Amino acid sequence: MAADEPSSAEQQAVAAAALTMATTELEYRVQLLNSMVGTCHERCVARPYKEGTLSVGENSCLDRCCAKYWQVVAIVGQLLGAQNK
Amino acid sequence: MSSADEERVASSASASTSESGVQNPSAAATSPTKKKKEWHPITMPTQQELAAQEFMNNCLVKSAISGAMGGLAGFAFGLFSASMENAHGGLDTVPELGPEKTTRVILREMFQNMKTKSVSYAKGFALMGALYSFNECVIEKWRAKHDKANPALAGCVTGAMMAHSAGPTAMCWGCASFAAFSTAIEYWMES
């Protein structure tokens, strides 16, 4: 009985920490998605909007934009991780 | 006048809260000429829609569709042109010597001429349409931009390709003329 209580408190603390980390991670991911969508839409889709569907050129521009954005995120993340060490 | 305005305000207020696509009968009664705009909710595209868009974005598919439509247009144009040619007789044509042809023979000749001409025009238009569409798709994919330079570039390449057997000067002329034509068509389609 005495051994159960601190372990349950530990478990609770660990669970709370994991929840906070997961919440922060989710928030970062949502921010990443929003900024990627905003940047690539601003760069690739020309204004004024002449039609309601994406043309072939805009489609390929969005493909390239998202791929490059993702690469930049990966590289910068790696550099940050290396710097923190 | 004020009662009609009140009815219009009431109908628009109820339309904003009701389901989309439900027409208000009082609005139709008061203003039959005005068509109420139906607002649809914004939805994310489904997998099927995305797959259909991806299918249409393929350059070969676009070129095949344009080639088919060009073939149809060429067929119609060939029929028209052959019928204009078949209307012989008059002061310009040289009279044919020999026994007079029966109606049946003349009709068969006309039909043959129509068939030949329409097939040849259909082939030419189909090739032109398919080639132009393929070039425009490839150029637009490579540039990753949707602007007015794409039809001009694609027209130039198509015109040069179609005149390749006539030498470099003809290729330059073909490029310039087809680029101008396709730019003009693009401006006309936009308006």
Structure description:
The complex is a heterodimer of chains A (85) and B (191). With 85 residues, chain A is mainly alpha-helical. Chain A has a single domain (8-83), classed as Mitochondrial import inner membrane translocase subunit tim13 like domains (Helix Hairpins). Chain A has 2 helices and no strands. Chain A has helices at 4-44, 56-84. Chain A is elongated. The model of chain A has no long low-confidence stretch (mean pLDDT 91). Chain B is mainly α. Chain B has 2 domains: 47-144, no CATH class; 147-191, no CATH class. Chain B has helices at residues 2-17, 25-30, 47-57, 59-86, 103-143, 149-162, 168-190. Chain B is extended and about 75 Å long. Mean pLDDT of chain B is 83; it is low at 18-29. The A-B interface holds A 44, 46, 50, 53-61, 64 and B 53, 57, 59, 62, 137, 140-147, 150, 190. Chain B: This is Mitochondrial import inner membrane translocase subunit TIM22. Chain B: It holds the Pfam family Tim17. Chain B: It is a multi-pass membrane protein. Chain B: Its main location: mitochondrion.
CATH topology of chain A: Helix Hairpins
Proportion in helices of chain A: over 70%
Q: Helices and strands of chain B: which structural class?
A: mainly alpha
Average pLDDT of chain A works out at 91
Main pleated sheet of chain A: none
CATH architecture of chain A: Orthogonal Bundle
Multimeric status of the protein: heterodimer
Measured by DSSP, the beta-strand proportion of chain A falls in: under 5%
Radius of gyration of chain B: 27 Å
Poorly predicted runs of chain A are none
Query: Rg of chain A from C-alpha positions?
Result: 21 Å
On the 0 to 100 scale, the average pLDDT of chain B is: 83
